[in-house]
């Protein structure tokens, strides 16, 4: 006899169970903070997410299947496969077009579209969307500034340190060893602050072997200088398997390359324990280079710096209002050091916002790992729900976001058991920050055949000829061309 619906067990609304889904989907669920568990790894819950194109699971008693195959069809193949693909990205600031080689897709926009459609499915099936906030309670966004110390200029270095005074905890320093090889004593000024590696030679290589040697050498150089670097950022923001594998082998805690993702929540790429903390790829240097291409004098360069500062301040307020994170970056070597007010204005604008967490990348990484350790179970109750929390961290307060349609409310988990009543929540409209870039194939950002050839050969002149370690045809061609002075 088939049991009646009334005899079916009442299962928890969350976490959702997941079947055979791509890593990118699990990655987005984790970024959103929606509790999930692998099917069969724990007692059953109400909803099982599955892909009808890959499997046909048998639901457990009281469980409901939600086919998200149509949602996966809408995801870009590169994101779904979690591949590293980049493309020129263009920003318009004032009269100048800024160009950078960034991730092909805006992963933030892809994630938000996917989450919205999944939330609709859950709500229509009688579920709820209660997710761990991306930020420690009571914050609603975070801000940090990443400084890439490519080379040492005493006046610029000093000007930047003056500009960050009082906000040192929100600034991350990534030092290139070759650029500071003659100024190691200057690094004493950074003691007690977050310092990471920017490689030894300022180049991101194509092979694992070369990146492993370059990054290890840069880390060891910083250690001899009295620092304990836990993070790395690749020169020029490049990202590919050769870099990812080297970072993994070195046991690096976090990294940050806009060729993989930009303006997005942190995430762990497929098969990697190294946390990616994406940054905004527009920096002061891009604006100055764009102005210089038009033969600009000092007055126009000053104007480019002013427009960059305005862009930063506007972006800080937009992202905070939307409840989204923002990490800016720049260089203290003739750029931010020459116009330090750009850096100071950004720091002051973020610090003045209520509920904006000011933090460096190592602190953000520590928080994100603690957040991923939290386990929630949500049980339905008349007029609300009961939230059971396991592994709440001692160092951070955990907040949750409840979303219903286009509105959201915040809840702080003050203990392992929290009762939530819908009529006691303060819902507010869900804001969205406007896109700040436009991906283009042609125009000023178009890559010439020479650029593509250089990328294929891993062409550069930064590494001394005797230091080149690349093998295969690419390594042979690169060394040969360097020897003949090409």
Q: What is the strand and helix layout of this fold?
A:
Layout: E1 16-18, H1 23-32, E2 36-38, E3 47-50, E4 64-67, H2 69-73, H3 77-80, E5 86-93, E6 96-103, H4 107-124, E7 129-132, E8 141-149, H5 154-163, E9 171-175, E10 194-197, H6 208-224, H7 241-250, E11 254-255, E12 275-276, H8 284-293, H9 298-321, E13 326-330, H10 340-351, E14 356-358, H11 361-372, E15 375-381, E16 384-390, E17 398-404, E18 407-413, E19 417-421, E20 428-429, E21 438-439, H12 449-457, H13 472-483
Parallel strand pairs: 1-2, 1-3, 3-4, 8-9, 8-13, 8-14, 9-10, 11-12
Antiparallel strand pairs: 5-6, 5-21, 7-17, 15-16, 16-19, 17-18, 18-20
Helix pairs in contact: 5-10, 6-7, 8-9, 9-10
Give a description of the structure.
The protein folds into three domains: 8-132 and 373-429, no CATH class; 141-366, Glycoside hydrolase/deacetylase (TIM Barrel), CATH 3.20.20.370; 448-483, no CATH class. It has 486 residues and is of the alpha/beta class. Helix content is 31%, strand content 21%. The N and C termini lie far apart (82 Å). The protein is built from 13 helices and 21 strands. The protein has helices spanning 23-32, 69-73, 77-80, 107-124, 154-163, 208-224, 241-250, 284-293, 298-321, 340-351, 361-372, 449-457, 472-483, and strands spanning 16-18, 36-38, 47-50, 64-67, 86-93, 96-103, 129-132, 141-149, 171-175, 194-197, 254-255, 275-276, 326-330, 356-358, 375-381, 384-390, 398-404, 407-413, 417-421, 428-429, 438-439. Mean pLDDT is 90; it is low at 1-5.
In short:
With 486 residues, the protein is α/β, with parallel strands linked by helices.
């Amino acid at each position: 006899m088939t049991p009646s619906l009334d005899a079916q067990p009442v299962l928890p609304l969350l976490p959702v169970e997941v079947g055979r889904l791509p890593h990118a989907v699990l990655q987005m669920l984790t970024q959103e903070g929606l509790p999930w568990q692998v099917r069969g790894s724990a007692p059953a819950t109400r909803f099982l997410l599955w892909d009808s194109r890959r499997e046909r699971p048998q639901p457990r008693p009281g469980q409901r299947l939600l086919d998200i195959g149509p949602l996966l069809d809408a995801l870009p193949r590169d994101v779904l496969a979690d591949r590293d693909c980049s493309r020129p990205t263009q920003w318009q600031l004032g009269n100048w077009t800024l160009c950078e080689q960034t991730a092909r897709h805006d992963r933030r926009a892809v994630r938000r579209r996917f989450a919205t459609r999944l939330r609709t499915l859950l709500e229509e099936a009688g579920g709820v969307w209660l997710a761990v906030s991306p930020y420690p309670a009571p914050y609603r966004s975070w801000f940090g500034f990443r400084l890439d110390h490519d080379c040492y200029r005493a006046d610029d270095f000093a000007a930047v340190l003056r500009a960050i005074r009082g906000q040192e905890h929100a600034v991350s320093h990534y030092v290139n060893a070759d650029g500071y090889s003659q100024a190691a004593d200057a690094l004493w000024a950074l003691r007690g602050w977050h310092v990471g590696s920017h490689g030894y030679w300022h180049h991101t290589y194509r092979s694992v072997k070369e990146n492993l040697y370059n990054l290890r050498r840069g880390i060891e150089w910083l250690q001899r200088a009295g620092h304990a670097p836990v993070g790395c950022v690749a020169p020029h923001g490049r990202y590919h398997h050769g870099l990812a594998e080297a970072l993994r082998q070195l046991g690096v805690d976090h990294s940050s390359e806009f060729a993989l993702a930009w303006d997005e929540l942190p995430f762990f790429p497929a098969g990697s324990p190294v946390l990616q903390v994406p940054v905004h790829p527009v920096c002061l240097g891009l604006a100055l280079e764009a102005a210089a291409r038009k033969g600009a004098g000092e007055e126009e360069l000053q104007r480019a710096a002013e427009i960059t500062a305005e862009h930063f301040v506007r972006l800080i307020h937009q992202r905070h209002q939307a409840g989204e994170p923002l990490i800016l970056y720049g260089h203290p070597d003739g750029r931010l050091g020459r116009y330090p007010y750009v850096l100071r204005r950004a720091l002051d604008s973020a610090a003045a916002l209520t509920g904006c967490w000011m933090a460096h990348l190592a602190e953000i990484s520590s928080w994100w790992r603690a957040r991923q350790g939290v386990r929630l179970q949500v049980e339905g109750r008349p007029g609300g729900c009961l939230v059971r929390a396991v592994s709440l961290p001692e160092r951070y307060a955990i907040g949750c976001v409840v979303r219903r349609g286009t509105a959201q409310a915040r809840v702080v988990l003050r203990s392992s058991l929290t009762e939530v009543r819908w009529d006691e929540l303060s819902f507010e409209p869900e804001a969205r920050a406007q896109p700040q870039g436009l991906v283009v194939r042609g125009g000023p950002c178009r890559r010439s055949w020479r650029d593509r050839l250089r990328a294929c050969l891993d062409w550069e002149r930064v590494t001394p000829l005797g230091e080149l370690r690349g093998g295969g045809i690419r390594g042979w061609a690169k060394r040969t061309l360097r020897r003949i002075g090409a």
